[in-house]
Backbone:
């Protein structure tokens, strides 16, 4: 694990603020040079890297928030703004005095439970959607890979057990009926859910077939929310290699969390093979409690409710009212690769425009949707990070992603200009980002969007410092969201590189129509990579 991203910086009252901020930004942006007027997001910063920067600055006694970095993204602007703020107060240890369950519920908590918390509105919404759909594959994801090494079952089982101890989400079950509200129970201990299949034949195709067969069978099994753990791990061991698949539900593990789990598991296993302990930095013990408290505060916010209603209050983009409601069956897909020169050009354009790569990609997505549908008022769902602003929040495993509606107009404008508007819209939406999607839909009376956009940067895998002696390959992911048309822009994937992947419901959209969108999106990305303003 790359501990330099999580260390505590010693307090200093004499360091020049510009020098301090430059050093912190540079460190968390991979050591690249940061000038006083360079935009943090244009240099490659994203929501998770921003969390690390904010926490590092707070550790120096400066009262900085994510909102400050969003609105003042250069060192010069940020230093000037922070100079007007009072010193940061010592951060309370995760609202420990707050009882989130009432007294009548607390007496019902069974023995063996380490913590009982209300389920988040995001979790309840997903569980409800999955139960009413009757589809066991919905939001049930599997990630798999191959490790080129002989398999040590004892060490791997120990690593998996330690992983469960480390992350409460892996020890979580749900009780939806016993209490006055839906509750998540974090158990003190669970048995590692590992099954092992051994094949004497070294032919890699046989191992791949076996692990995919287990995945198909596993996704078809119904989920018992009342029993932890809500994830499973299967290994197919061959003489000189082994295949791993981890299946989990989105209610406890979001996409970024999957990456964190894999990194932690591989580092724990690699350390045990060396006869050592993995020096992994600890995630915040009360992070889930922090998230529940913040979500409840947002649920009471009329400002947040009104903001999202304004974003979504436009006629649906693809489907007439009533044509799509509930969970779609997005089992078909289309994709294209984003070649290195195009990705480099996109990064250069974003840097010149002073925006993030995500904002530029979102602008290209909006341009493609406009060309595809003939509409200029484009509402698309956008996946956003909702982790609490607490040191080590990027190390947390759980459901900390939300999908929210954003409305973009003027899509014929130059893409850097459209990207700036997308960046400003994301900035304005940030304080409300954890407002539950179900509440937005309830007020609107229909799904707020029928297209979603998810920008994924896999820099979490750069933290695999401690597992460098384990060679991994043949990565794959399988999962089914509830949306009828989902666009994933993946940057630097574990093995596939950078690509755009579209999942869609073939009962609602035919392949030819979807291919028209991908051609428009690919053309928009190519144009954006040219850097025209």
Residues:
């Amino acid at each position: 694990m790359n501990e330099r991203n999580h260390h505590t910086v010693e307090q200093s009252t004499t360091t020049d603020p510009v020098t301090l901020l430059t050093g912190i930004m540079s460190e968390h942006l991979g050591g690249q040079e940061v000038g006083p007027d360079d935009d943090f997001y244009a240099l490659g910063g994203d929501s998770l890297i921003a969390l690390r920067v904010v926490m590092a600055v707070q550790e120096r006694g400066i009262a900085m928030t994510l909102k400050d970095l969003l609105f003042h993204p250069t060192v010069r602007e940020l230093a000037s703004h922070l100079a007007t703020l009072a010193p940061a107060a010592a951060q309370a240890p995760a609202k420990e005095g707050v009882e989130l369950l009432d007294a009548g519920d607390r007496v019902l908590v069974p023995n063996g439970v380490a913590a009982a918390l209300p389920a988040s509105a995001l979790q309840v919404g997903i569980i409800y959607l999955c139960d009413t759909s009757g589809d066991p594959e919905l939001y049930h994801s599997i990630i798999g890979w191959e490790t080129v090494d002989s398999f040590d079952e004892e060490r791997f089982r120990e690593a998996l057990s330690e992983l469960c101890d480390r992350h409460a989400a892996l020890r979580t079950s749900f009780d939806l009926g016993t209490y006055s509200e839906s509750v998540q129970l974090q158990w003190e201990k669970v048995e590692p859910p590992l099954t092992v299949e051994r094949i004497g034949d070294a032919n890699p195709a046989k191992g791949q077939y076996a692990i995919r067969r287990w995945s198909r069978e596993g996704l078809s099994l119904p989920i018992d929310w009342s029993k932890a753990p809500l994830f499973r791990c299967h290994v197919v061991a061959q003489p000189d290699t082994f295949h791993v698949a981890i299946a989990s539900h989105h209610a406890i593990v979001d996409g970024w969390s999957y990456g964190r789990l894999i990194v932690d598991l591989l580092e724990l296993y690699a350390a045990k093979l060396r006869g050592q302990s993995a020096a992994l930095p600890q995630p915040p013990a009360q992070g889930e409690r922090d998230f529940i408290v913040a979500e409840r505060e947002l649920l009471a916010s009329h400002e947040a409710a009104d903001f999202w209603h304004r974003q979504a209050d436009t006629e649906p983009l693809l489907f007439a009212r009533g044509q799509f409601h509930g969970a779609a069956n997005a089992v078909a897909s289309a994709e294209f690769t984003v070649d290195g020169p195009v990705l480099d050009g996109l990064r250069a354009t974003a840097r010149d425009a002073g925006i993030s790569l995500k904002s530029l990609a979102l602008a290209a997505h909006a341009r493609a949707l406009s060309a595809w549908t003939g509409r200029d008022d484009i509402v698309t769902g956008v996946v956003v990070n909702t982790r609490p602003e607490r040191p080590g929040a990027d190390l947390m495993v759980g459901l900390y992603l939300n999908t929210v509606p954003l409305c973009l107009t003027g899509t014929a404008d130059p893409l850097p200009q459209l990207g700036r508007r997308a960046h400003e819209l994301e900035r304005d939406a940030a304080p409300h980002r954890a407002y539950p999607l179900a509440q937005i839909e309830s007020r609107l009376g229909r799904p707020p969007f029928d297209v979603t956009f998810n920008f994924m940067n896999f820099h979490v895998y750069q933290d695999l410092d401690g597992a460098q002696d384990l060679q991994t390959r043949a990565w794959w992911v399988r999962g089914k969201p509830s949306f009828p048309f989902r666009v994933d822009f993946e940057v630097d994937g574990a093995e596939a590189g950078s690509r755009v992947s579209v999942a869609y419901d073939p009962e609602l959209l035919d392949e030819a129509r979807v291919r028209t969108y991908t051609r428009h999106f690919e053309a928009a990305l190519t144009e954006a990579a040219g850097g025209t303003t």
The radius of gyration is 23 Å. Residues 1-14, 90-98 have pLDDT under 50 and may be disordered. DSSP finds 16 helices and 14 strands in the chain. The longest strand covers residues 241-249.
